[in-house]
User: Fold Pentacotripeptide-repeat region of PRORP domain-containing protein from Salix viminalis.
Amino acid sequence: MISKGCSPDVLSYSILINGYCKIKRIDDAKQVFDEMIHRGLIPDTVSYSNLLSGLFQAGRVLEAKEVLKNMYTQGHSLNLITYSILLDGLIKQGCFDQALGLFRDMQNSYLKPDLAIYNTIIDAMCKSGKLKDARELFLELSVKGLQPNVRVWTTIINGLCREGLLDEAYKAFRQMEEDGCPPDNCSYNVFIRGLLRHKDPRAVQLISEMTGKGFSADVHTTELVVDDDLVVKQLLGFCEVHQEGKR
Assistant:
């Protein structure tokens, strides 16, 4: 492009940075970013966000923090996408406390977290053994005027199953539909896996219900089913009864 006398703009550089990051050529992405600045162009929030995403995915947290610091120095404000990248990156690199601090800063700023960001934090809380905090954050959604979507419901149900709180998970599973958010294929599979792992007989009922709605077991759920002889027998018995009922 440059050799043909056409000077790339910020958008062109941002696309190139994003492309390099997606194929894990982070050093090339950084070089393009630095070249953009050298040519007198000012990186925008998209440019910074693309580079931050690549650095976090590569596990280069310290470099990502330096880029973030530079972003602040240049007077750029974080948008929802940038916050999402930072939170996801920090959590995946084991920096949960820093992610939570950033989330709290966001809550106190003019830019409020959306459902996707709430889901990221709730999921991280569940996986780090902070189910009580996850519950409180989930309940906070309605106070903030946000209606949990199927993804958020599924996350909290999964967290409850991880802790063996199957009755509470079952209640939440039924509540989501009552609240106008019917479970999808992912919801059924997540909850059924939770029941199967704890040898809960309600798994058979949920499998039947799931297939009746046109959904199907994914590979992870299927593995748990075939490894449980009792569940297999119950399902076979259910199929026989169902077939006799059709005659």
Q: What stands out?
A: Residues 184-247 form one domain. The chain has 14 helices and no strands.
